[in-house]
Amino acid sequence: MKKILSFAVIVTLLLSLLAACSSESDSSASATDKKLVVGAKNFTEQFVLSKILAIYLKENGYEIEEKSNMASQVVRQALENKQVDLYWEYTGTSLVTYNKLDPISDSVKAYEKVKEVDKENGIVWLDPSSVNNTYTLMMKEGKASELGIQSISDLADYLNAGKNLSLGTDAEFATRPDGVKGVEKAYGFKFGSSNLKKMDVGLFYQALRDGQVDVATGFATDSRIKAFKLVNLEDDKQFFPAYNAAITIHEETFEKYPELEELLKPLAEKLDTETMTDLNYQVDIEEKSETEVARAWLTENGLIEE
């Protein structure tokens, strides 16, 4: 009788151990099941943003695969096909390039529109950041201060007073309705054809730094703005289209991990154009790695521990 009882006890203990092991295995599986693929385009700002996103998600218990250095159309297609789960996109790019709609200069309206149209494409837009990598008119800080020009309206007043300034831009942007021609019309001024200095894209910053031109077109978060002590003139009439950065996520991924909406809010809340320019500067000019810059920013903002 004692042998039978002992055997029964042993069987019970073994079953309990198996159940415990099974429970641990299930728990472990559910933990590692939190897998996400983070995508990125092929320029510095995207590398930094994707590293911020990837590191932050890893620190919050997700297993992350990174797919970066993709052309804009390629990463968008990868998102639509669920080859990537999420990545940082720009409102203006989605409206104009992917959805073939007219650009919108108001950041809020641009975000609401792209959120609406991309819902039909199976894409969810999380909260937008204040990072606006739009077109800009730039001047050297010292020159702008000397002439009292802080905004494009100030620039218009200066030129309309009969004074001349030269503009560095590329041939295409000089004639585009959302480029030089458009901004001249919106603000009521003209540089004049003799004051237009046409050059290859990317040379504007050096030309402005070296005094070859007085004003130049560019992109608002380019690291050379800080490096060359340039300043973006305020677009006080909001002419240029909004290109605010926000995390886009495939709808199936969003349905599987709805907690991502709240989890990722602090990233959008703490990033702005000035911060992004500085982060780009650290990579492009100070030659720090994207990982180092991203981790330092997350730590400084209390989003991850050292």
Explain what you see.
This protein is 51% helix and 19% strand. The protein contains 16 helices and 10 strands. Helix 2 (44-59) packs across helix 16 (290-300) and helix 4 (91-98) packs across helix 5 (107-119). The termini are far apart. 37% of the residues are buried.
Describe the structure in brief.
The chain is of the alpha/beta class. It contains 16 helices and 10 strands. The chain folds into 2 domains: 34-133 and 242-300, 3-Layer(aba) Sandwich (D-Maltodextrin-Binding Protein, domain 2); 135-232, Osmoprotection protein (prox), domain 2 (D-Maltodextrin-Binding Protein, domain 2).
* Low-pLDDT residue spans: 1-31
Largest sheet: 5 strands, mixed
Helix percentage: 40-55%
- The assigned structural class equals alpha/beta
**Fraction of residues in β-strands:** 15-25%
Average predicted confidence as pLDDT: 90
Described by the principal axes of the CA atoms, the overall outline is globular
CATH class category of the largest domain = Alpha Beta
Compressed to H and E, one letter per element, the order equals HEHEHEHHEEHHEHHEHEHEEHHHHH
Second rung of CATH, namely the architecture of the largest domain: 3-Layer(aba) Sandwich
Ends distance: 62 Å
How many runs of DSSP E, i.e. beta strands? 10
